UniProtKB/TrEMBL annotation:
Transmembrane segments: 62-85, 97-115, 178-199, 205-222
A Pfam match: DUF1275
Name this protein carries in UniProt: YoaK family protein
Organism from which the protein derives: Paenibacillus farraposensis
InterPro entries according to UniProt: DUF1275 (IPR010699)
Keyword Cytoplasm among UniProt keywords: no
Keywords on record: Membrane, Transmembrane, Transmembrane helix
Length: 233
């Protein structure tokens, strides 16, 4: 039997699917931006940086190995800052700490695009890794499930798990969760493609592409719409 119902996925909040997709696009964008244009170092994928660090050490390339250490430190510091911001009751620009995070990202990435080419790539990578960490720590829930906006491994696992449950038990909610994670993974891939393409095409100012996506993310908070999907029981 088919019953038409409505799923109020949510209002446009920090847990919005639309916001999650935009932030995931930014996450993929930043990783290819730094990897393609900034010495082959990941901004978000610290697992990759740890592996590359180990490989360079094994190869005896100590100087190249050191390049992967600052992003790890910056990422850790970003967690501290994000937790501090979340615990503040007021902000100079906005009473909403999630909006404050987005404004912080927009401002910093815009400035990064202005950094002269003579500045070492490590400096830029550290800044980007720091901000990426703040974003990942601040936005960790997608409607009613956890997710990460800057890396894809956990999201892929969750999507696969939800898809398995949906197929084996005919669970509609699991199918919807799988589709949501699919949107997040697709957005990350699109962001990675855009980041790589723009970095190769226009160089360092390509990071302003992430700024544009973040501006759209900020604008979303002014909307009050709700998405509705048909239900099958």
């Amino acid at each position: 039997m088919i019953m038409k119902g409505k799923i109020h996925l949510h209002q446009v909040t920090s847990e919005s699917l639309r916001l999650g997709a935009l932030l995931s696009l930014v996450g993929g964008f930043l990783d290819t931006y730094t990897f393609v244009g900034r010495d082959g170092v990941f901004a978000n994928a610290q697992t990759g940086n740890i592996v590359l660090l180990a490989i360079k050490i094994i190869q005896g390339n100590w100087v190249q190995a050191l390049v992967h250490i600052p992003p790890l430190i910056a990422f850790s510091l970003g967690v501290f800052v994000a937790e501090g911001i979340k615990r503040k009751s007021t902000h100079l620009l906005t009473p909403d700490w999630t909006r404050a995070i987005l404004l912080l990202e927009i401002a910093i990435f815009f400035i990064v695009g202005l950094i002269p080419q003579g500045v070492p790539n490590t400096v830029v990578v550290v800044i980007v890794s720091f901000v990426a960490s703040v974003q990942m720590t601040s936005f960790r829930k997608l409607i009613d499930v956890p997710y990460t906006s800057t890396v894809s491994t956990g999201n892929l696992r969750s999507a696969s798990e939800a898809l398995y449950i949906a197929i084996t038990t005919k669970d509609t909610n699991a199918a919807i969760r799988a589709m949501r994670y699919g949107v997040i993974l697709t957005a990350f891939l699109v962001g990675a493609l855009l980041g790589g393409f723009l970095t190769l095409a226009i160089g360092d100012i390509a990071i302003w592409g992430a700024v544009v996506a973040l501006i759209f993310s900020f604008i979303l908070f002014t909307e009050k719409e709700k998405w509705k999907l048909p239900l099958r029981h």
